[in-house]
5-dehydro-2-deoxygluconokinase (Niallia nealsonii), 1324 residues
Amino acid sequence: MKYEFNNDREFDVIAIGRACIDLNAVEYNRPMEETMTFSKYVGGSPANIAIGSSKLGLKAGFIGKLADDQHGRFIKSYMQGVGIDVSNMVVDTEGHKTGLAFTEILSPDECSILMYREDVADLYLAPNEVNEDYIKQAKVLLISGTALAKSPSREATIKAVNLAKKNNVKVVFELDYRPYTWKSKEETAVYYALVAEQSDVVIGTRDEYDVMENIVDGKNEDTINYLFSHQADLLVIKHGVEGSYAYAKSGEVFKAQAYKTQVLKTFGAGDSYASAFLYALISGKEIETALKYGSASASIVVSKHSSSEAMPNVEEIEALIAKNEKIEARS
Amino acid sequence: MKYEFNNDREFDVIAIGRACIDLNAVEYNRPMEETMTFSKYVGGSPANIAIGSSKLGLKAGFIGKLADDQHGRFIKSYMQGVGIDVSNMVVDTEGHKTGLAFTEILSPDECSILMYREDVADLYLAPNEVNEDYIKQAKVLLISGTALAKSPSREATIKAVNLAKKNNVKVVFELDYRPYTWKSKEETAVYYALVAEQSDVVIGTRDEYDVMENIVDGKNEDTINYLFSHQADLLVIKHGVEGSYAYAKSGEVFKAQAYKTQVLKTFGAGDSYASAFLYALISGKEIETALKYGSASASIVVSKHSSSEAMPNVEEIEALIAKNEKIEARS
Amino acid sequence: MKYEFNNDREFDVIAIGRACIDLNAVEYNRPMEETMTFSKYVGGSPANIAIGSSKLGLKAGFIGKLADDQHGRFIKSYMQGVGIDVSNMVVDTEGHKTGLAFTEILSPDECSILMYREDVADLYLAPNEVNEDYIKQAKVLLISGTALAKSPSREATIKAVNLAKKNNVKVVFELDYRPYTWKSKEETAVYYALVAEQSDVVIGTRDEYDVMENIVDGKNEDTINYLFSHQADLLVIKHGVEGSYAYAKSGEVFKAQAYKTQVLKTFGAGDSYASAFLYALISGKEIETALKYGSASASIVVSKHSSSEAMPNVEEIEALIAKNEKIEARS
Amino acid sequence: MKYEFNNDREFDVIAIGRACIDLNAVEYNRPMEETMTFSKYVGGSPANIAIGSSKLGLKAGFIGKLADDQHGRFIKSYMQGVGIDVSNMVVDTEGHKTGLAFTEILSPDECSILMYREDVADLYLAPNEVNEDYIKQAKVLLISGTALAKSPSREATIKAVNLAKKNNVKVVFELDYRPYTWKSKEETAVYYALVAEQSDVVIGTRDEYDVMENIVDGKNEDTINYLFSHQADLLVIKHGVEGSYAYAKSGEVFKAQAYKTQVLKTFGAGDSYASAFLYALISGKEIETALKYGSASASIVVSKHSSSEAMPNVEEIEALIAKNEKIEARS
């Protein structure tokens, strides 16, 4: 089963939200207190997805707000360098700073992030900086949940969804839940439900769907009944190492395994998953294949040092899928 | 043409939003600088509508947050006194104050209001203070636009709309636009559009619809095309002394004249209009009649000193309508 | 013993701080919930002291910030009307409101105040609105403790003290402690100590001195040792109905009794005390006499409805003192 | 001429204020946009001075507030490692972050800093976290001007000065002016004057004294007249490459040249100057010698990569002084 897009659009995907700086520990397997050097990368979920998509060959654009400083200029220049249209990345004029994420890699499965998200520029994107003429050129508008966390980015994002619906642009909602950005779970649930009910495709972990529904231990069955009664027709629910599911409104269900890899750190898995899944879907591949692309891409990124810089190309993804299918065939 | 409600509900209308204090100049026709005495009344658009509806005989409830002080207790006691269910009016525990409106009555058509709306209790109503079990008992959930102006009242209101839709409660949206409460027109437009698109009935002045559409000199034709493409099926658009229109999704259009009166001040016209219109609609009267009820009620209130205390009963409204129809018949 | 002032100055006293609105219950001896009418007066400790001083015949000026609205204009006009120089009362341009105090007169000794002090204009007086050329024309700069509660009024007040010291203007510090205006007792103590150490005369209740020293049950003996080791040479410590003491650095101690009266409410006692005490001191009366003036003035104001409007003239004060001295002589 | 201290104290110097993180560009001589790796050091003026003093052999303590995260723990551990008493460095419990300074080294004389100072932990030091029992053990309390920039650190610092004066601890005020931390120049001037008037020793650049006096192109002569009329008895005024002056209240004036060096970057010069000057003064050296120590130490630090880690020991400082005196002797 394939998913249909409006093909007469200039951009495959336009993402909206944060583009930040990751400062990744150069020295691994130790507490951050003992890390003395950090490498700089572009980060932030929607930026990573745009970068990953662009490296896979999609035509990507980005709507966001950048600090008027060296970090902001680095981000714009890097994203432009990988082929993203940055014409709608505006520069903040009120002194807000770029969000930062210092990563600590204690061990492959013990990673933590020290965030600087206080009054960051990306959350100051304003509704009047979101342009209908831009959005209507896209097949997909990619929303990241974190962009809903604070005003005026919240209103800019709601406006973008409204304009996308009006112009038959598919809304893909990556839940991307970061608790430190929100005031309360109740507030998160209000905005997650609001946008999910208007989205065509929703992607998230089971835990993130629980946040949206403001419940504990939610069931996929209930989630799909809820969202399919609104406007969604494709839901991806990820269950970590147990793999991920895609539910179509038509009733079909697809499942993909997680690919084993030599894990260096856990960051970036969700973003690489989303970018490869979107690439495959927009390229006209079967939903089932798209899930494999997502899993393979995630698997590659967690074995490398960065999130954005490590985004794989199509050959790497397909090689990993092929290798795993051989293994499966043998076993 | 009548408008259908779900009749097996305990409450005719539950309003959500602010309940405040009006301090009306005892001495008229002078600048407030020279006013030395003020009379205290309950005020705030949704409180006034609930009070007006209750005095007309509807079973009304209210969801709101009150300051933990003498003004808050006065409001609760007054509203309970006119028959409103106050079980969902919660008391603020963080020291926020009751909103105040000092009115100046310079002349019948030169009135101004000096507002105290900084960090007021009503805007601190939180999503977890909005109960599904309460809302689902209502025929109508009445939303006042001002409740959307600030968090967390904004999220509480969005949640209330969501719960109303889920439980087949009609959502009536009184636009009630107060510029001083909002950060920007762009932000207002985002939330007004969001709620109007989900409402069944929208009531406002032409100017207020322009705010919702973020345009100047909007046309009723465009407004009804826009909102009828979403969920609304009845729109009331008021044009001041030129009268008001009701547009039904079925295509019918109704018009009512404004009734002439001895105007004392202009405050309270919109609230008394809404309460009488709702009363007539819920009582099973024709839409055209409901418009007359609204106009007559507004006409009565602007001839008196307060907004809430002056809300008329059915006899007064019907007497005014009858009197005017005689005049029209003669002319 | 008399207190010396620099007599070649145009103003007897320039006060700095808040000028607000009191809304006094017209109906007495009932809870505010049942009060339906309020009378408007100018209020705020330093404004009341300036008004009281001016009515007694002192040449007074005022440094403060007023809301750009009807309440602000009323205050300016009223203060000008009683003879105060208002040339240094600036108008706020950022939408801040006038502070309000609703008074409840439950019984003569059960009074409470419902304050509106959120983001009020008086606390936005900025350092650049305090002029050395103005301050240096005064015999006395009167500081009210509440002006230290928030920035930028805090810095404006510290600057005013600095300019007064530089120009040999006596600094009189009325502690005027209002807990709701402050973040913490610790913060209050820091600024109260800072200003008290630089003041020539300090006036307050025993409780207010305790706040300044951040202690409980402080002793006058310790307080005078502490402040006389800095720059003060006259301290007035009030003990309510037990009367008040004046301590001079020279070692002399004076005491005055509180005068019995028919108390209507307790508001305004401190302000009327300070204005009459200052009047007597600046007029060259003995410190002991000045204490009597303070007590008599307080006694008169608590028997009347307002704080500002009720400020007595010299004849009333002297009549009350004379009457009491006859009574004492007889007993 | 020597400067006298109270020698029966356990600590030579206790500094109060910020301890932060510097992230210094590993790659030099390029814009930060092209810097891909950053090295982590402890930074912040009073922390650097404490570290520098401690490395020179003084017994140092520190009063400050640290983020409850990896950066906060690194700072505490590093400072403890160089011998500083950290018993009065408290941990923030409200989620505030460590201040950051990313340095850009474009060329030896074109350096810039990208600061993260929004809601940082050090500015949340509260008055009740400043202990009299600790301060009274010190010969010197070192105040950094930036600690005055925001509440509650501002009040904590004013309280510390008050306690130092009360206990005969010399107050040394390093003006350390950072414009981005302050709301306005007027506000800065108010607090700088307040603390400078109570300090025994003030150290700053000519530009910083201008900020304190809220003037342009101030003269040293006026500055010393002003501050010597209050409590100061030693002022150090630095004029960049033209050298620095020390003015004693007794009338003596001392001057020191800046030492030539191979400059790598300009950061850290002021802090290294202050630490070596204080070391020499407290060690009983002549004021003139102390100035040379300051200059030599500054010269060494600007030739190295960090501010804190590069703080020299006594041998390095004395070697540089000796080398320069030979050169001077020859010329």
